[in-house]
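Postdoc handover notes: sequence design on the structure in folder B. Input tokens:
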């Protein structure tokens, strides 16, 4: 069965740089292992941005205009709704094991083992964020308060991050349920995580086991500062060979622990550090390219 890796890149230059970096790391990891990468499906409003990898990947590009994306955002203009619509469209065109990944996600190792977990009884999402019905962070507490009255059976389930979503063709019909649940919940609970809840709830309600993609993929959603590094990276390295050979020098996994250590400091201490000019900054990591 064909294996597909699916990306969506449109709008801001930052998103395009993240997607380019993800593709570079994919190529680098697979070339180092002497293996052929999965085929790439890419929905984008600027396909010319990715011509530099066409010789190294099987790339299926679908040009998608911003007018269509706005339609897919729906009546309530939900920014993550187009992801579901695009996945539905992809499954009508391509038949195989499908792994969607956010652009701010890249390979830590080849994805063969992750694709192998996809079956009639199992799907993939990025990582489990905790039980909805138990004590957790403020985000889960807000969900729990809402769901107690709206969808109480969800309290027995886990919340999963949707930076990665993987499934086999047999599960494509579930996307209609995901979309319906998203459209039903978002007007009543307009949170940016409604779409990820809808995926996790639908998969669990159907009794599917969800495997974590985290051992295979690094998702740096909480390191937006890395965009500054990427901007400098693509200014400095302009040929595919230069980009590939230097992509490992700036891995977010190198930077992320320092940022998270800073985030664990109390807000009071962070304010003091900021006043003293000692708060966490991304600028020192630009030296990784020197």
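Designed sequence:
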């Amino acid at each position: 069965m064909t294996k597909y890796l699916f990306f969506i890149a449109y709008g801001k230059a930052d998103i395009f740089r993240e997607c380019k970096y993800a593709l570079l790391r994919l190529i680098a990891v697979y070339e180092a292992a002497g293996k052929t990468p999965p085929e790439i499906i890419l929905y984008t409003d600027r396909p010319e941005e990715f011509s530099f990898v066409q010789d190294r990947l099987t790339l299926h590009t679908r040009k998608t205009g911003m007018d269509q994306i706005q339609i897919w955002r729906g009546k309530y203009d939900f920014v993550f709704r187009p992801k579901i619509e695009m996945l539905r469209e992809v499954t009508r065109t391509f038949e195989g094991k499908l792994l969607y990944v956010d652009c701010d996600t890249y390979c830590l190792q080849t994805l063969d083992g992750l694709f192998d977990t996809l079956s009639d009884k199992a799907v993939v999402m990025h990582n489990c964020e905790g039980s909805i019905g138990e004590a957790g962070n403020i985000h889960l507490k807000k969900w729990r308060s809402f769901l107690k009255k709206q969808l109480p059976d969800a309290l027995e389930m886990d919340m999963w991050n949707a930076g990665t979503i993987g499934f086999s063709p047999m599960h494509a019909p579930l996307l209609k349920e995901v979309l319906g649940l998203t459209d039903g919940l978002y007007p009543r609970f307009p949170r940016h995580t409604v779409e990820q809840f809808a995926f996790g709830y639908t998969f669990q309600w159907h009794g599917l086991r969800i495997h974590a993609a985290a051992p295979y993929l690094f998702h740096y959603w909480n390191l937006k500062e890395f965009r500054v590094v990427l901007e400098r990276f693509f200014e400095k390295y302009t040929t595919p060979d230069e980009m590939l050979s230097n992509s490992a020098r700036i891995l977010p996994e190198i930077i992320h622990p320092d940022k998270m250590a800073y985030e664990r400091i109390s807000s009071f201490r962070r304010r003091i550090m900021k006043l003293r000019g000692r708060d966490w900054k991304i600028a020192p990591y630009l030296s990784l390219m020197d």
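Context for whoever picks this up: The two ends are 43 Å apart (CA to CA). Don't rerun without checking with the PI first.
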